[in-house]
Specification:
heterodimer, A: alpha/beta, TIM Barrel, eight-stranded parallel barrel, two-stranded antiparallel sheet, 16 helices, globular, B: mainly alpha, Non-ribosomal Peptide Synthetase Peptidyl Carrier Protein, Chain A
Chain lengths: 463, 84
């Protein structure tokens, strides 16, 4: 017998229930919570207010020009300025895309920063990124930035093996000297706890952040140190019950509630080495980080970072509304990135050429009857991308009919039945059965066949 | 003029490329005569062309065997004023 045996009688109906309170087709499917989230911290249950995400000022920050650029040849100044402009358009007036960070070391870096700021956008705010070197704050100050990230690596792999400190004490003192230099320069330091998911949390991370909090008590609010939790190797795990240092819930709890770092001074920066990057970012929001750091299309060092466009969709799903976000700009940015040589796989979610293209005939049949059956949301409205079919030997007459109707732009009662498309369907099948074809059929080929085999419709709708 | 039965069997044999003499009224298009998905569509299209009628897609595709097709087509012809 099951442990919690209950009877579940069928609730029969002739009217479908599409669960539209969650699957409102005009929005990404909403993430609705019906209970608090519980994690055991030091043996005691702790509740996290998941539903509170709706009212919290969670934001997306961007590192396309910093981490994103570490994974590819440099962007030109004009390219970066255009991408910055598109980020502003995407994030909207409420600043959902709140900040983006820039290198400051070369003439080109500084020229780009100036040109982006000349555009006059309030958001994303431009911030800097420097090494943990006191002298580098001169660059930040000269650039007129209010905030800069600085490397404060936190694992012993970095402290001893990379940075060659003789002890943790020496390391912490060194970092704190740089933080003091930032305060003196009137710049808010954002301490990047590199490799935090592989660090000794109790032995180094908590004492260091505790000291940062004490130091921050001595400066105005606008200068108080922010903390970026950097999951440098993608070791972070989002689900409950995992031990430190890999547990995202516990890491954030310790900083947020034990040390009192406010949520608006906590940021998550992930990497995708174990395919967890997007979920980990969303989990960081849930457990108390207000900011998730991202790059466009997840392009970043090695396996990349949380994809900005994925976070945008998650944001809407959590908030239940668009919040001023212009989702169609996601497609515009993807088109632009392709035009300057960034490879985006065809099956890449939300922007790949085939992300909402179905190949199976049975799926095409579903799409033909009601596009909601096999489309994630109204991709025409939100992304400017109607669902499509690509024809192969698996597409069947349903797939052909769907393609033909899309091609002619026919809807409702005007749609052409699959029976009227039978000659094109036969041509498609023969390509595979008679000609031994191994590839999908291109739109151009189909267009030619429709012209030849369905001349009466071509005459009616295309001439 | 050939009967509806003869014309249905003739079209079926042409589309499925089988001997008309082997087609029986109880034969299912898919199970017995081997009609594949696209061939089912072609059969309906060819019946429409042969008889000069328009058939409702879902109803026509729901017809399973030769005898039922003869009945269905006869009914549609009568409804659409086509003499058979």
């Amino acid at each position: 017998m099951p442990e919690d045996n209950q009877s579940h009688p069928l609730i029969d109906t002739t009217e479908p229930n599409f669960l539209e309170e969650t699957f409102d087709y005009g929005l990404p499917p909403l993430i609705r919570f019906d209970s608090p989230v519980v994690e055991y911290i030091d043996g005691k249950p702790v509740e996290f207010d998941a539903a509170g995400l709706k009212s919290r000022d969670i934001v997306i920050t961007d590192t396309t020009f910093r981490d994103g650029q570490q994974a590819r040849p440099p962007y030109s100044v004009d390219q970066m300025v255009h991408i910055y402009d598109l980020l502003a358009k995407l994030g909207g007036p409420r600043g959902v895309v709140r900040q983006t960070e820039f290198f400051l070391y070369t003439k080109n870096d500084r020229e780009t920063l100036d040109k982006c700021r000349e555009l006059g956008h309030e958001f994303p705010e431009c911030t800097g990124w420097i090494r943990a070197v006191k002298g580098d704050f001169r660059l930040v100050k000269e650039a007129g930035l209010k905030e800069s990230g600085m490397l404060t690596s936190s694992s012993d792999y970095h402290i001893f093996q990379k940075l060659k400190f003789k002890s943790r004490r020496e390391c912490m003192d060194s970092y704190c000297e740089v933080v003091d230099a930032a305060f003196e320069a009137g710049v808010r330091p954002r301490c990047h706890l590199e490799d935090v998911t592989r660090a000794d949390i109790n032995g180094f991370v908590l004492p260091f952040v505790e000291r940062l909090m004490r130091m921050s008590e001595q400066v105005p609010d606008k200068l108080k140190a922010k903390i970026r939790l950097c999951d440098t190797m993608g070791f972070g795990v989002s689900f409950p019950g995992v031990e430190l240092p890999r547990s995202i819930p516990k890491l954030i709890y310790k900083l947020n509630r034990e040390l009192g770092v406010p949520s608006d001074r906590l940021e998550w920066h992930g990497h995708n080495d174990f395919h967890k990057v997007h979920t980990n970012g969303a989990a960081a929001w849930l457990y108390g980080c207000d900011a998730v750091n991202t790059t466009l299309f997840g392009f970043g060092e090695r396996t990349g970072n949380p994809p900005l466009e994925g976070s945008v969709i998650e944001y809407i799903a959590l908030k239940g509304e668009l919040c001023g976000i212009n989702t169609e700009v996601i497609t515009e940015i993807a088109d632009y990135m392709r035009s300057i040589g960034l490879p985006i796989p065809d099956n890449y979610p939300l922007v790949g050429r085939a992300f909402n293209t179905t190949r199976a005939g049975i799926h095409a049949g579903g799409l033909r009857q009601d596009e909601r059956i096999y489309n994630i949301f109204d991709t025409t409205k939100l992304l400017g991308r109607p669902p499509r079919v690509a024809l192969t030997d698996k597409s069947g007459a349903d797939g052909v009919a769907l393609w033909v109707n899309e091609f002619f732009g026919l809807k409702g009662a005007d749609r052409i039945s699959k029976i009227k498309c039978h000659k094109v369907a036969r041509w498609v099948m023969d390509q595979y059965e008679q000609e031994g074809r191994m590839t999908a059929i291109s739109d151009e080929e189909l267009e030619q066949q429709v012209k030849e085999l369905m001349p009466q419709y071509w005459e009616k709708y295309k001439s | 003029m050939a009967s509806v039965e003869e014309r249905v069997i003739d079209v079926t044999a042409r589309v499925l490329q089988i001997d008309p003499a082997g087609i029986k009224l109880e034969h299912a298009f898919s199970g017995d005569l081997g009609a594949e998905s696209v061939q089912s569509i072609e059969l309906v299209a060819m019946f429409e062309e042969e008889f000069g009628i328009e058939m409702e897609e879902d109803a026509a595709l729901a017809v399973e065997n030769v005898g039922a097709a003869i009945e269905f087509i006869t009914k549609v012809c009568n409804e659409q004023g086509v003499e058979v």
